[in-house]
Specification:
Strand content: 15-25%
CATH topology of the largest domain: Rossmann fold
Mean pLDDT: 87
CATH superfamily of the largest domain: ANL, N-terminal domain
Number of helices: 14
Helix content: 25-40%
Distance between the termini: 56 Å
Oligomer: single chain
Number of strands: 19
Low-confidence stretches: none
Length: 454
């Protein structure tokens, strides 16, 4: 225990500050920014909103002065960010992913040198390769956001993490290995590109040997690990905190993870383009929106601000990306905003849940949509014998169903599944069923419960 405490102190108070000093970050280091976030999380909402509006005005003025794309956009729509109202701001067109693909050079601020900027690449739910650029301060701020969210899950600087993640990094030098082990404190991975009984057994054994504190990973991948270890008494994976991210955390999967590991799951939500969007605190009463970093809109089908409790599209303006401003960006997700306050005392507004990615809503013949993840919950959790399920809509009246059987699977399981899908999509639905050993992952190692290819 003393050795563990010494490692934590050495990592957080000595090695990490020295590393940031070496890299030249000392004036805007992650740890300085984290200290600020620890303070601002307890501000009253009126003060948080005032700071957010000031930062929004600043990024709009910066974009108008320095980004060719926004100079033209604001001019075309008669919008002056120095005097424009919020009503005028909310009439600006939404930034589409395809616009980032085609207008990347004009979105960048004047004089940008791409090779000197930080990049984030994502395929997202659209399957399009998207590259977004940032300055170094943005990366440090993004890291600080994540570290504060980690602290809500029970992590403290220097604690060892283990990740259930795809394509884990492979250090190519002694310094890279040093940073991974001592600075990032994460060098134990269960690679989601290769999950098997053997790799999960090895992961559990290494967890015990290395005395790991925090478990981090894709929500569904954490569930797969928990589901495997539930039949192995004394598996030894006993985290002090669990962080689920990158995909929908279904309630039935949360229940299994928490029961097997004896620890609450902290669910968080973000994307590569803008970083952390929301995260649960230690009370797990919904997710706190990261309004210190982002201006977040919830828009109904008419493009107006949605009411509290109403399913809406999430649109985000990054308040700090001065290299490539993202203003009113459609992240491709939908969720439910709430104006209630959490019992923890933090007054940041709340995100009740994420219902699903817009690309993962399946379509009916009448033009209405069905949340794929809700459909999976309705079938996967209700029909015995289905271990894993994926729905791929290949045409408006055709769905491919990928099934991994559990021991209880019978012909009745398939009939019940077909009946549920038909009741939702109508009698004209054609169902193509394929039984698999496992559901294939995307190139980034994540699962997708539902895909709409229409």
């Amino acid at each position: 225990m003393r050795a563990k405490r010494l490692r934590q102190v050495l990592s957080s108070r000595v090695l990490s500050p020295l590393s940031e000093l070496k890299a030249g970050y000392i004036h805007f280091s992650t740890h300085r920014l984290l200290k600020d976030l620890r303070h601002t999380q307890w501000l009253q909402q009126d003060e948080l909103r005032k700071q957010q509006r000031d930062r929004l005005r600043n990024i709009l003025v910066h974009a108008a002065r320095n980004s060719p794309y926004y100079r033209k956009l604001f001019s075309d729509h008669g919008f002056d960010p120095t005097t424009g109202s919020m009503e005028a701001f909310c009439r600006l067109p939404l930034l589409q992913k395809r616009t980032i693909l085609t207008e990347v050079d004009s979105l960048l601020v004047d004089g940008s040198v791409k090779d000197s900027l930080v990049t984030a690449k994502t395929g997202g739910s659209t399957g399009q390769a998207l590259t977004v650029y940032f300055d170094e301060l943005w990366r440090q701020r993004r890291n600080a956001d994540a570290m504060r969210a980690d602290e809500w899950a029970g992590w403290r600087p220097g604690m060892q993490k283990a990740a259930v993640w795809g394509n884990p990094p492979v250090p190519d030098s002694w310094y890279a290995r040093f940073k991974q082990r001592w600075l990032y404190c994460m060098d134990l991975y269960l690679d989601t590109m290769n999950i098997s009984p053997a790799t999960m057994d090895t992961f559990a054994a290494e967890w015990i040997r290395r005395d790991v504190d925090i478990l981090f990973g894709h929500a569904h991948s954490l569930y797969i690990l928990a589901d495997y270890l539930k039949d192995k008494p004394g598996h030894g994976v006993c985290p002090k905190g669990i962080i689920a991210t990158s995909m929908m955390l279904l309630q039935n999967e949360r229940d299994v993870i928490e029961r097997v590991f004896g620890c609450p799951v902290t669910n968080r939500y973000g994307c590569e383009e803008v970083g952390l969007i929301a995260c649960e605190c230690e009370l797990h009463q919904g997710m706190h929106l990261n309004i210190e970093h982002l201006y977040i809109e919830f828009l109904n089908e008419s493009g107006k601000q949605a009411r509290s409790g109403e399913l809406a599209e999430i649109v985000i303006t990054d308040l700090y990306n001065k290299a490539m401003p993202l203003i009113r960006y459609r992240v491709g997700d939908m969720g439910v905003y709430s104006d209630r306050k959490c019992g923890c005392g933090r007054e940041s507004p709340m995100l009740e849940n994420i219902v699903g990615r817009t690309a993962d809503f399946l379509k009916r013949e009448d033009g209405s949509r069905v949340a794929g993840v809700s459909l999976v919950e309705r079938t996967l959790t209700a029909i015995p014998g289905i271990a894993q399920l994926q729905l791929v809509q290949t045409a408006i009246n055709r769905i491919k169903v990928n099934i991994v059987k559990a021991d209880q699977y019978t012909d009745m399981s398939g009939e019940r599944l077909a009946a549920e899908l038909t009741s939702v999509f109508g009698e004209n639905l054609h169902i193509d069923t394929e039984f698999l050993e496992n559901i294939p992952r995307e190139a980034n190692g994540k699962y997708r419960f539902a895909k709409c290819l229409v």
